[in-house]
Amino acid sequence: MVRVGRGPGEMKDFKVLREAMVKRQIEARGVREPRLLAALRTVPRHAFVPADLRSQAYRDEPLPIGEGQTISQPYIVAAMTEALALGPEDKVLEVGTGSGYQTAVLAELAAEVWTVEIIAALSLRAQSVLSGLGYRNIRFQVADGSAGWPEAGPFDAIMVTAAPADIPPRLREQLVPEGRMIIPVGVDRQDLVLLSRKEGGWREERLFSVRFVPLVERRPS
């Protein structure tokens, strides 16, 4: 296990802050799924933020993690995860590894997590933290996340943690029948969209307004 505090007292303090985060920021806003709440009480969010921001790790806000990226607000992590309705046998694609915090939450709930990050430095840092915490059901790739991970698909669920202007068609193609995708969509205005693959078509539900960093796509040379 990775050690992110100076001693037992500091680790206990983080546990208290994590419990308060779940009760006040997440349960109080209507998130009820028991396995998800247990995961949020388990994953040490402070392990995924820069050392100088660890005292702020359990606040109700996003935090910078370098490379122009952020770790999402705890409630947003919870709401997006709950919307996917993950089962313990599910295979999940995450587009945008970022800090690795959302990856860890997914790994607590699903059988396999395949996570793609275009910024190599972030992917390597997340791999180090997640490996140190003992996760063994995660696969990593440094690549353009808008293309997904076609050779590893199809997936039961896809989570996208950065906002494209429109839903990338290549991600739709990598969902199994009855698969679900949660994705922020838009430029000036963004909406969190839950996309479900149904027989003969798609069901699209806009949940609420959000603000994510743009999805970085690799441009053709």
Q: Please report the distance between the alpha carbons of the first and last residues.
A: 42 Å
CATH class of one domain: Alpha Beta
Strand content bin: 25-35%
Tell me the CATH superfamily of one domain.
Vaccinia Virus protein VP39
Principal-axis shape equals globular
Catalogue the unreliable spans.
1-9
Q: What Rg, in angstroms, do the CA atoms define?
A: 17 Å
Describe the largest sheet. 7 strands, mixed
Descriptive overview:
The termini are far apart. This protein is of the alpha/beta class and 221 residues long. Helix 1 runs antiparallel to helix 2. The chain has six helices and nine strands, in the order H-H-E-E-H-E-H-E-H-E-E-H-E-E-E. The radius of gyration is 17 Å and the shape is globular. Strand 7 (175-186) and strand 8 (190-198) form a beta hairpin. The longest helix has 19 residues, at 8-26. Mean pLDDT is 91; it is low at 1-9. It has a domain at 60-210: Vaccinia Virus protein VP39 (Rossmann fold, 3-Layer(aba) Sandwich).
